[in-house]
Design a protein that fits this description.
single chain, 372 residues, Elongation Factor Tu (Ef-tu), domain 3, five-stranded parallel sheet, 7 helices
Length: 372
């Protein structure tokens, strides 16, 4: 096949390319330049650039080096404007609204896959390959493509792919879906790739130090939008009593315990963030548990929007163990999810993913958690 390969400059995409090359496919490599490092937003207190292991210029060079080693053409797509509009700005606005976003889902489906898929089609490519740990299969009986978790559940990345459409899934190819991480590194070593021992990035690519609120402060200041910075406000308990002061709602997330600055006989946790009243509501750990929530932007993969309730195992964040629940489809691509047992810290802004109740590897669909 003729395959467009997304090259991030990391070991996973490099190994995927090496595997496909060994199988005899014709490859065209693409790297997406997403974040403008020259804007000097990601700097420390001394003005020095923060180290980044994802989507940096070094990653572009590493991806090009891999393509040269394996012997296939390589191109760089400049998507900086699209990335800021479709990923960074929604990320900032979500935090300013009192949510806790996960931008990697939108980046994968709405930017990386969408852009690379269009490019691949224009070049006559049969598939778009990435280094994701996930699997796609075509179901002839249902006449649709189905998405599954990767064999290595700890590295599984299906959580970031639930927004993919049937058309995108028809061209998606995940060569590493059946592999363990150790096997992936062996492939890169056997191919003598420079990236074989490269460390993985654990943070959002445009926030390399993981300090999200500080990034938002720098971003708004750089854009002359400091007037949008959330002001200080009250921290209140579940009885409505003021027990402290917060320094801006974008510095807090549901379930947070540390950094509240409140002396109390029992640990306090953030239960709710109210943008309209500029308040942080805190309470006991038991108050974090809830049995249901509503999701928007729901995308059904295994079947069309159901007319009857669906039993599934549901995740409410990446490292959450899927829990049994009943999903009720609502109008306007929304759904109400009711768990069998209460779950902790269901957070607006996070992605939720639905797995088949019997085959926990199959992705039924997913959505975005919103307030009830």
């Amino acid at each position: 096949m003729k395959i467009a390969v997304a090259m991030s400059g990391g070991v996973d995409s490099s190994a995927a390319a090496a595997l496909l090359k060994e199988q005899g496919h014709e490859l065209i490599g693409f790297t997406m330049q997403l974040w403008n490092q020259r804007r000097h937003i990601n700097v420390d207190e001394n003005g020095d650039p923060l180290p980044s292991r994802c989507c940096s210029l070094d990653d572009v060079y590493d991806a090009r080096r891999v393509a040269e080693t394996l012997g296939f053409p390589f191109y760089v797509l400049n998507l900086e404007e699209d990335f800021e509009r479709d990923v960074v700005e929604p990320f900032v606005q979500s935090y300013l609204s009192g949510e806790t976003p996960i931008p990697c889902v939108a980046c994968n489906s709405r930017l990386k896959f969408a852009s690379l898929d269009r490019m691949a089609v224009s070049l006559g490519c049969d598939k778009v390959a990435t280094g994701h740990f996930a699997r796609v299969e075509y179901d002839e009986a249902a006449n649709r493509y189905r998405l599954f978790r990767g064999k290595n559940h700890w590295k599984d990345q299906s959580y970031f792919l639930w927004e993919l459409t049937q058309e995108q899934l028809s061209r998606a190819y995940f060569p590493l879906g059946e592999m363990l991480k150790s096997e992936v590194r062996d492939i890169a070593r056997d191919a003598n790739l420079y990236t074989a021992e490269k460390q993985e990035s654990q943070e959002i690519c445009f926030v390399p130090d993981g300090k999200y609120s500080e990034f938002i402060d720098r971003y708004l200041e750089h854009e002359d939008r400091s007037d949008e910075m959330p002001a200080a406000g009250e921290i209140v308990n579940t009885a409505g009593e003021t027990i402290g002061e917060h320094s801006g709602i974008h510095r807090y997330t549901i379930g947070q315990r540390r950094g509240l600055g409140i002396a109390h006989e029992k640990p306090l946790y953030v239960l709710q963030i109210e943008r309209a009243r500029n308040k942080i509501i805190v309470g006991d750990v038991e108050d974090l548990e809830s049995v249901e929530f509503v999701a928007k932007g729901v995308n059904w993969i295994a079947f069309d929007e159901p007319s009857e309730p669906v039993r599934a195992k549901v995740k409410v964040r990446y490292r959450h163990d899927p829990a049994p629940a009943t999903i009720h489809a609502l109008p306007d691509a929304r759904a109400r999810i009711v768990f069998d047992e209460p779950q902790r810290a269901i957070t607006p802004g996070q992605a939720t993913i639905f797995y088949d109740i019997d085959d926990a590897d199959e992705v039924v669909g997913g959505g975005w958690i919103i307030r009830n």
